[in-house]
Specification:
The strands form two sheets. A six-stranded antiparallel β-sheet has the order 5-6-10-9-8-7. A four-stranded mixed β-sheet has the order 3-1-2-4. The protein is α+β, with helices and mostly antiparallel strands and 515 residues long. It has helices at residues 9-16, 22-32, 73-78, 97-100, 104-113, 116-129, 133-144, 148-166, 171-177, 183-194, 198-204, 233-242, 295-305, 312-320, 326-331, 343-353, 358-372, 398-408, 413-428, 439-447, 454-465, 476-484, 491-497, 505-514, and strands spanning 43-46, 51-53, 67-70, 82-83, 213-215, 218-226, 249-251, 257-263, 266-276, 281-289. β7 and β8 (257-263) form a beta hairpin. The longest helix is centred in the first third of the chain and has 19 residues, at 148-166. It has 24 helices and ten strands. α5 (104-113) packs antiparallel against α6 (116-129), α5 runs parallel beside α8 and α17 packs across α18. Mean pLDDT is 90; it is low at 1-14 and 383-389. The chain starts with 8 loop residues before the first helix and ends with a helix.
């Protein structure tokens, strides 16, 4: 005789009518309204048809009893569901939760998107996060519905679909660019997730693929990366362009931003241009890669650099509730936090840029890069002029700055000591800066270094982690902006006032900077 476990009356009611669960009911309402604002924030699994969809899928609304909601595509795969061919649920911006949250699951998702599992395996991912593989698997399965291998597999499938529908790369190249270890594994995964062969996915694409070019061992291609609306692409690209290091970065007359960067398998040059419509914004990403296997990390880093997954609707709703910020929010909806494609680079930008003008910092960084940066030997994206005409160097490594930085750096001795100290810590591994860190631990490690204070630590966390709730009250320009808006300009008073902007104080800071 089997003995059933006791079930509470509340749980029994939820099982009989899932709409009594407030979270389920909220998501079901969003799905029934086909609200595109929720695309990427959760996934709808329809068990009667065996598929999973984005919330805005135009299909007939399923009955509540046939529906489950998932935070990740991997969880839907684990439940035996396949991707909807009609709404393409992974062709949307990613979840904003992985930046808003700072727990183990969110930090793991940031590293998985960057390709850590493909490069280091699950043991390497667990080691980076400071846990055992068993504990990490248990936490991710409990919170996200899938373990790290399944999450990485789903991410590879999504990258493959992006390449199949957006480029004419040979299918074998797509397999390895997406992170698969073999073409057979690639074919099996794509067939299982999408119930289509790779060739059929490409044939069903609704737009002409962008031609991919190979030259001297490198590959150039273009992709369209969706952003969550509203998206003020001009502002975030303008922020990066104003701080461009000559030889590494450049601003185009057409509003584009181009830079050279270091990826796991070699250098790359990427050109970013805001495109799309206000309702469906996107970024055109044209890249020249040394190794096509770096495409997935490049896409993840570009998405973080431009903050493409931020929930701008929720952010603007909170900030516009303050009459002091409402006019700025109305004038520039969808402001984004500028992120980073190279965490170590942000450390040196922050240290060299503190207490000096943007122009002075750019001059110092250009001098440092000219002296210590590695040469770039790639052609510019799109088959234009050689990269050497505009992009001569990669930003210097921490090892190079630790070894020769004193020969190049100018300024107060204490500042130079702080820069060299940080470079030495990064070079010997005693300081690690990456998206797998928690904000609290990252700031603790930074503040332990001589010459790094709360402003520098907060700015690095804001740029590297995309932390949404940092108000840099030690920033003079930010305080001046607050004063112009009639807000407190003294750090403690501004910090106290800013609690009303939580959990989006980083974005409030952008509006204060604008003022």
């Amino acid at each position: 005789m089997s003995i059933a476990h006791p079930v509470s009356s509340a749980a029994a009611a939820r099982a009989a009518d899932p709409l009594t669960d407030p979270v389920f009911a909220e998501r079901y309402r969003a799905m029934s309204a086909r609200d595109a604002r929720f695309d990427g924030q959760f996934i709808t699994g329809v068990h009667s048809t065996g598929i999973y969809c984005r919330p805005s899928c135009p299909a007939v609304t399923p009955k509540p009893g046939n529906v489950s909601f998932y935070l990740t595509a991997a969880a839907a795969h684990e439940a035996g569901l396949r991707a909807c061919k009609r709404c393409l649920p992974d062709a949307v911006p990613g979840s904003p939760q992985w930046n808003v949250r700072d727990d183990l699951a969110a930090r793991a998702m940031r590293l998985i998107a960057d390709g850590t599992v493909e490069r280091e395996g699950v043991p390497g991912l667990a080691r980076r996060l400071g846990y055992t593989p068993r504990h990490l698997n248990r936490v991710l399965t409990s919170e996200l519905g899938a373990g790290p291998l399944a999450l990485a597999r789903a991410h590879r499938a999504q990258t493959a679909r992006l390449l199949l529908t957006g480029t004419d790369l040979p299918i074998t190249d797509v397999a390895f660019a997406a992170g698969f270890s073999s073409v057979r594994q690639f074919n099996e995964t794509v067939a299982e997730v999408y119930r289509l062969t790779p060739g059929a996915i490409r044939a069903a694409a609704r737009r002409a693929p962008v031609a991919a070019h190979r030259q001297a061992g490198a590959v150039s291609l273009g992709l369209r990366l969706p952003a969550r609306a509203p998206f003020d692409g001009a502002s975030v690209i303008g922020f990066l362009a104003a701080r461009a290091i000559e030889g590494v970065e450049a601003a185009g007359a057409d509003g584009s931003y181009t830079r050279a960067l270091r990826l796991p398998h070699g250098p790359a040059v990427v050109r970013l241009t805001a495109t799309g419509t206000p309702a469906a914004p996107s970024v055109q990403c044209d890249a020249a890669l040394s190794d096509v296997a770096d495409l997935a990390p490049l896409v993840a880093r570009v998405r973080r650099l431009l903050d493409l997954d931020a929930d701008a609707e929720a952010i603007d709703a909170v900030l516009s509730a303050d009459p002091a910020l409402a006019p700025s929010v109305a004038a520039r909806p969808g402001l984004r936090l500028p992120g980073a494609v190279d965490a170590d680079e942000i450390v040196f930008r922050a240290l060299i840029g503190q207490q000096v003008s943007v122009a002075a910092a750019r001059t110092a960084l250009t001098r440092l890069t000219d002296a210590l940066g590695e040469p770039v030997a790639l052609e510019a994206p799109g088959g234009g002029a050689p990269a050497s005409a505009s992009f001569t160097r990669l930003f210097p490594t921490a090892e190079a700055i630790a070894e020769r930085g004193r020969e190049v750096l100018r300024g107060p001795a204490r500042r130079i000591d702080a820069i060299i100290g940080a470079a030495e810590a990064l070079a010997d591994g005693s300081l690690r800066i990456d998206v797998g860190e928690s904000r609290q631990e990252l700031e603790r490690r930074l503040l332990a270094l001589p010459g790094i204070g709360p402003w520098t630590a907060g700015y690095i966390a804001l740029r590297v982690l995309g932390s949404p709730d940092i108000l840099l009250t030690g920033d003079l320009a930010l305080r001046q902006g607050a004063a112009r808006l009639g807000l407190p300009a003294e750090p403690k008073a501004l910090a106290a006032y800013g609690t009303r902007w939580a959990p989006w104080r980083s974005y409030a800071g952008l509006h204060l900077w604008r003022a």
